[in-house]
Structures are given as structure tokens and as C-alpha cells.
Amino acid sequence: MELPEKIRRRLDDFSRNVLFDESWNQSPTKGTDTFSTHEKRVLSSLQLQMSLYFNMWFFPWWWICETVMLHLKYPALTDYYKFILVTILIMMTLIEASRLFLGYAGNLHEKVPELAGFWLLSILLQFPLILFQLFNEAILIQPLERGVHMVLAIFILTQVLSGFVALRDMVRYTQSQFHLQQFEF
Q1: Which of 76, 119, 124, 132 could form a disulfide with 163 if both were Cys (CB 3.0 to 4.6 A apart)?
Q2: Do 154 and 97 contact (CB within 8 A), yes or no?
Q3: Around 94, how many Cα atoms within 13 Å sit in the side-chain half-sphere?
Q4: Cα 52 vs. chain centroid, distance in angstroms?
């Protein structure tokens, strides 16, 4: 039993295009500026990705320093600051893990909801918490704490700024693709 000619031709074209992409074997001509025939703009932000990568390696060191400093100054703190600092440490640990995951997923996979969640967690929760720990003198800030808090605050600030730019570009591109799809039908 043979396939009809029309179906055979479509399967042949499909297999040739999908399985054997000949655009990789051809040398680029003078008239083409693109690398491949499929033009898809890369929307991932290199600055954001680098900041997330370095933050991922810095955060365990921040956590160790913060835990050791909290253990050393715990007897000298008042009761409500003991509760506040332990709560902040637990909250920041949980938020930072989910924030970094959302940042990676949103940036690398170019997903707007994940990147928006990352940006909101950064600006609404993580940044105020780190600023509280950096500038509140009543929690008996030690020099090591001040140093690691400054580095983490700089990471978060750069991620907020570069995340905003990446999110804005992704939303604009998605919006333009949506408008183009309306005219295809």
C-alpha cells in the first residue's frame, strides 16, 4: 500500500526540513545578514544572567556569615530583635532560593510570568529586607555583616534594574508577536 503523492511530498518536505537542516551546511551569501533562515530574537539578558550566576555562588557565603554573626551577637540583642533577625534569616533564605530559580527560568527560557515573579520578589521583599539589615544600627551590625550585606544589596539592585529591562523587552516582543498573529488568520 502506497501513500498518495500529496501526503508523500509533505512528509518528504517535513523530514528534509526537520531532520536535515541544510541551512547549516550552506555558506552565507552576501545578501543575508542573519545566521539562519529562522529569525528569532534572543531576549535573555546577559547582564541579568551573570548577576544571577554570581549571586547563586555568593548566597551560601552570605548565609554562613549571617548565621555565624547572628549566633555571636544573639545574647546581646533584645528579645524582639532576636525574633526579627531569625525570622528575616529564614524568610530571606526561602525567598532567595525561589527568587533565583524564577530568575533563571524567566531569563533563560524567556518566560514573562517567571521573570515578573522574580522581579516582584526582588523589589518588594528581598531589597527591603537587605536594606533593613544594612542600615538598622539597633541590630548591632558587625563589619563582616555590613560587607556581605552591601555585596548582596548590589547584586539585588543590579538584578532589579537589568530584570526590569529584560522584562520590558520580553513583554514588548510578546505583544508584537500577539499583534502579528491576529493578522495571520
Answers
A1: 119
A2: no
A3: 6
A4: 6
